[in-house]
Amino acid sequence: SPFIRYFNYENNILSSMNIINNCITFDCKLIFTSSMAVYGDQIPPFNENITPCPVDPYGVAKYATEMDIKIAANQHGLKYNILRPHNVIGIYQNIWDKYRNVAGIFINNTINNQPILIYGDGEQTRAFSDISYYMEPFCNLINDFDNEIYNIGADKTYSINQLADIVQEVASHFGFKMQKKFVEARQEVKHAFCDHSKAKKELKFNDQTNLERLIYSLFEWAVTQKSRQQKTMSYEITKGLYGFWKTSD
User: Fold this and answer.
1) Backbone angles phi, psi at 95, to 5 degrees
2) pLDDT average, residue stretch 157-167
3) Cβ-count burial of 159 within 10 angstroms (0-12 exposed, 13-18 middle, 19+ buried)?
4) What is the phi/psi pair of residue 180, to 5°?
5) Which of 95, 116, 104 is nearest to 230 (CA)?
6) What percent of the chain has pLDDT over 70?
7) Mean of pLDDT values over 170-185
8) Which SS3 state, helix, strand or coil, does residue 191 take?
9) Helix (H/G/I), strand (E/B), else coil: 161
10) Considering only 28-37, 87-96, 230-239, which range has the smallest mean pLDDT?
């Protein structure tokens, strides 16, 4: 997002404003999928009482939308919920985007016999979450729990190196050999994961993510897909652009 600011704000803030306006006009509750990125580089696990402090334009866009929703609620009576999921994985997701969904990127590169890039030392930690456990709590919000914010996702954390090892093991079952390549570190939050106590208590959220099984199912689905060109972005600025993206486009 630091290299596509206009695209980021147009697609995350302005597009959301169109939806917010219509929810106000037609008296429709809004359930907004925000992001853990709003918390920025604070001490995890993040809980909903922490004041957001995003450190990248994507997080800024999500937090700006959250604030506008709250203003709409105060002034126009908009009913809403804000959900902050993180590192969601599941079949049917876009694995052809080179910038997002790290597990999908690893799998897509492996299938196409390309090395997977690990930024920095690979010791960044995240909690990877199975999308299948989100549907029930999302539905619970349609008619209840108005104007509340919830973190939602898995509790167990893994390093990027551990994720790569899991993908490598799963890939071997399908006859693929994954190649790792360590490259320069990105500017990113090192350790980011959430506390989900509120969602567990109020929404009866029950996450049972099994990362090994989840990666296996995603890989099994991915090998059935037709080859697609990996999505790239047109950079708005290139100053400070990471070398591994410069040479790719």
Assistant:
1) -100, 10
2) 97
3) middle
4) -95, 145
5) 95
6) 99
7) 94
8) strand
9) helix
10) 230-239
Closest by CA to 237, choosing from 54, 7, 11, is 7
Contact between 130 and 207 under an 8 Å Cβ cutoff? The reply is yes
Tokens of 185: 């570190």
- What letter represents residue 101's amino acid? N
Sign of CA dihedral 125, 46, 6, 22: positive
Q: Are residues 194 and 129 in contact, defined by beta-carbon separation less than 8 angstroms? A: no
Two tokens at 125? Answer: 């930690």
Beta strand ranges found along the chain (DSSP E):
30-33, 80-85, 88-89, 116-119, 125-126, 129-130, 148-152, 158-159, 180-183
pLDDT in tens, 185-234: 999 999 999 999 999 999 999 999 999 999 999 999 999 999 888 777 88
Residues 6+ apart with CB under 8 A from 38: 52, 54, 59, 62, 63, 66, 84
Residue 106, both tokens = 């690893």
Each residue's pLDDT tens digit, 30-54: 999 999 999 999 999 999 999 999 9
Centre a 10 Å sphere on the Cβ of residue 127 and count the other Cβ atoms it contains: 22
| Residues 6 or more apart in contact with residue 225 via CB below 8 angstroms | 95
CA angle 8, 9, 12 (to 5 degrees): 80
Contact assessment for residue 83 and residue 138, using Cβ atoms and an 8 Å cutoff:
yes
Residue among 99, 163, 93 at smallest CA distance from 126: 163
Q: Token digits for 51?
A: 């004041």
- The verdict on pTM exceeding 0.85 is yes
Please check whether residue 30 is in contact with residue 55, taking contact to mean a CB–CB distance below 8 angstroms. Answer: no
Read off the tokens for 191: 């350790």
